[in-house]
Structures are given as C-alpha cells and as structure tokens.
Amino acid sequence: MSFDEPNDGRERVRVFVTGTCDGVGKLRESLESHDEVELVGHSEQVQDGAGALTGGHIAVVLHATRGETLPTNELAAIREYTRAPIVLVASMGSGALLEEALESDVADVLLLPQLTENVVFAIKKAGHAGRRVQTQSGKRGRVVTVFSPKGGTGKTVTATNLAAALAKHQNKRTLLLDLDLQFGDAAIMLGIEPEKTIHDLVSAPGELDAEKVAGYITQHDCGLDVLPAPLRPEDAELVTEAKLGRLLEVARESFDVIVVDTSPFFHGPMLATLDRTDELLLLCSLDVPTLKNLRLALQTLDLLSFPKQRVRIVLNRSNSKVGMKPNEVEGALGMKVRFEVPSDRAVPLSVNRGNPVVLAEESADVSKAIKQMAKELFPTPKEEGKKRRFMRPAMARS
Ligand SMILES: Nc1ncnc2c1ncn2[C@@H]1O[C@H](COP(=O)(O)OP(=O)(O)O)[C@@H](O)[C@H]1O
Ligand SMILES: [Mg+2]
Fold first, then answer.
1. Are 153 and 169 in contact (CB under 8 A)?
2. Are 124 and 36 in contact (CB under 8 A)?
3. Percent of the chain scored above 90 by pLDDT?
4. Which of 56, 93, 105, 146 could lock 159 by a disulfide, CB 3.0 to 4.6 Å apart?
C-alpha cells in the first residue's frame, strides 16, 4: 500500500488489476501507458495474484466484474491479501450492484466504457483516501527490513547495531522487531532478558493498539525499544500474517523507525512485513552460495512485485580476502552495492558480550560503517538540510 516516487518527482499509484469484464483489457492497456499509474500486474483469478497483493506495495486494487451484483466472494478473497482500497469496474451495471457497493468497503464503482482519465481519477482518489486512513494520527514511521536468504550472513548483527545506532546517534524513536520467529537472537545480542515477547503480545486478548504494544516492549539502555522473538520455537506460528500486519501499522504511529530482523524465509508474516517495508536491506557476503541465493531472492521479490527501488544491497564482511571483489557481486546481482560493512573481530567479541559493537566500540571501522548507514537512511533534519543544499544544482538542471 504505497506510492512510489519516480525520478520526476510525480507520484505514480501502484495498481493491481484482478477479475475480468468486457473492456478491461483495453483499460489495462491505457493504464499501462498512463504516467500517473504504475500497473504492477494483473490476474483474472484473485488467488493467482496473491503474491503481489500481499507483498507488492499495492496502493489500489482495480477489480473487474461481469456480474450484475456485487462479487462478494472475490472481494473477500482480495481482503485476505490486502487492505488496499478497491475500485470496482463492471461491464454490466445494475442498480443492485451500485446499491450493494454503497454498503460494502468498495471505494468506487465505474461502469465501462469510461474515459481513462475518469478511471485514473477514481484510482487516485481511492489511493489518497486509503493513505489518509493509514496516517490518521499524522505520524508514519518507516519500516526497515533486514533480510538475506542465507543464515549467518549478519542479519541480526546488522539489525541490532543499526537499530542501536538509530536510537542512540540519530535520536530516532526506534523499535527493533525480531521476526526470526523460531530462533531469534536479537535480544541475546543486545544483552537483554525479555519477560515478554511478540508471542505474548499477539496472543493477549483485546484490540492491538499502541498502548498495548508499549506494554510488551523491553527497553535497552541506549534507548532502543525491542520486541523480541518468542522464547519457544513452537510459539512462532501464533504470530500470523494478519496480526503482524496490524502490529506494524500500530507501531508506525508511535515510532520513527521500525527495524525488522528476519529469518531466511519468505513465510506469511514476512510477506506482510514486505508489504509495509520502506527500505529492504538485502545482506550479502563475498561467497558464491550466498550470491546464488540472493539472485533467487531477487527473483522472488520480483514475482511478489516488490518495488525494486526500495532494495538496498548491503555487503557484509566487505574486506574479506576470499578471492572475490565487491564489483563482482554487483555484476552477479545486476545491482549496486549500497552499503559496505567490514569484517571486524570486534563483532564476535561484542556478540558474545551481548553489547552491540556500535555502542561497545564506537570508533571501530565496522561501527563507523553502520553509523554511517543509519545516518544515510535517516538523516537528522540538520543533515537533511545540508543534503538538499548540496543537491540543488543537479535538480535545477533537470
Ligand atoms: N561484519 C562482521 N565482522 C565479523 N563478524 C561478523 C560480522 N557480521 C557478522 N559476524 C559474525 O557472524 C555471526 C552470524 O551473524 P548473524 O548476524 O547472527 O547472522 P544471521 O542473523 O544472518 O544468521 C555473528 O555471530 C557474528 O559474530
Ligand atoms: Mg539472525
């Protein structure tokens, strides 16, 4: 559910089309070439679009129907995957359809044929309304997800240190969420002994709201708030996709940043997280199996229609002398390495002491690299000002 800003600064609304009716093929073609819409994909059967609908940052679903009444089953199927606003297009409208739509959570109904501009207007209007609902409180924290398809690449080291750096050095209200639900070790790396975990939070009765989340958080000395993984692997499955989606939405209202540590799998809660992820840090190292799996992960993200401009490649242990160079990684992935984190003996030492290296050894190269990452991802207002001034000549040219 998001708007992506292309380079020209105009917002393009990410749309996914489901269902079918007369004229929808032509409509899709016109939307495809429209500069205010990004047509992410389409599937006649709602279920076939599950990946993109769940994890693809869809701002609006355009559902086409042939029936003369509200396609309740298909709308319910869409709602299984996303809460994005739905615009209905129909080829055979009837009074009943419009009447029923009024009572449903459909944002708009259009009878085809229509001018493309009318459809685009309805899409934009639905998208804006959807976005307003999400930001009722006026605050919207950003979700940074740290992922790699392989264990041991440094996800937890990166997530814990980045989160600590954001809390301590960038002064951001930061939540670290451990989504390695079976074998999460973020709490151990931070040296905290949590009494409550994400499992306790999602299985507690009643509505999940900001106040409740606050009651299940463990705070680290550096000011970082942590929601640890369940203590027992078998409790992982209670953390469902829907619960996690709700948790992230609530957390966004009270935190500036939510850093999510993950396991090397694309499971349901991970898809719900991807759908709300603003920055996806993909961790990589200088070894062939990791690169191979990372290429597969990039393909999967593509299948899920995850927006590529949100992916940042992080090369961990970038200075290891192992017969492979960072530029070979870029060649193999077809993407630039955005951040490099060197290998440092201080890391395993700090892991074993349960004290993040950015706090324990602030001047180590690895700490500098992670603090710099925090700064570039979330500049303080002062740094932001500097960056803008620096960028102005380039912007004036375009
Ligand atoms: N930059 C680094 N320098 C030295 N050791 C590292 C570095 N990054 C990770 N490690 C070591 O690798 C181990 C595995 O990292 P971890 O973050 O637990 O991986 P993952 O969460 O991806 O499974 C850690 O215990 C840590 O000691
Ligand atoms: Mg880990």
1. no
2. yes
3. 81
4. 146
